[in-house]
Design goal:
This protein is mainly beta. The protein has one helix spanning about 70-75, and strands at about 10-15, 20-25, 30-35, 35-40, 50-55, 60-65, 85-90, 95-105, 105-110, 115-125.
Length: about 130
């Protein structure tokens, strides 16, 4: 695969609380995806440099967008009232990362100039290691 910009986004979907995958890419203005690993320091006192072990894998995402009562709002409006895993699928330039996430907040912001935007952070829920396909 050649180098690419973020303009080739071909899919961005999140399940509703009922489990229906919903394409929200038209409402999302930007997003951040992270797949960190825990690290344990195992350096003995006999060493002059750090030794580490990789631990558990994780995944988190934050989607930001423009309020759409008939689009993304239908997906995230139940975040405060439900505790369900939601499948999130991010495809960029033909490469996909999907995961089961729990969304912990659905933040609406009305700026002083009139924009109505939202932000929704999610974190890995089911213990499955995130893998790009």
């Amino acid at each position: 695969m050649a180098k690419a910009s973020g303009l080739g986004q071909t899919a961005l979907s999140v399940d509703t609380s009922a489990g229906t995958p919903t394409d929200i890419r038209n409402d999302v203005t930007n997003w951040q995806l992270s797949t960190p690993r825990g690290v344990q320091d195992i350096t003995g006192v006999d060493k002059s440099a750090n030794e580490r072990l990789l631990l558990l894998a994780d995944m988190s995402v934050t989607y930001n967008g423009v309020f759409n009562a008939t689009g993304s709002h239908l997906v995230f409006r139940t975040v405060p009232s439900t505790s369900v895993n939601r499948t999130c699928t991010n495809t960029v330039n033909g490469v996909t990362l999907a995961g089961e996430l729990l969304f912990s907040d659905y933040q609406l912001t009305r700026s002083d100039s009139g924009e109505l935007t939202w932000s929704a952070p999610g974190a890995l829920a089911d213990g499955t290691v995130p893998t790009w396909a």
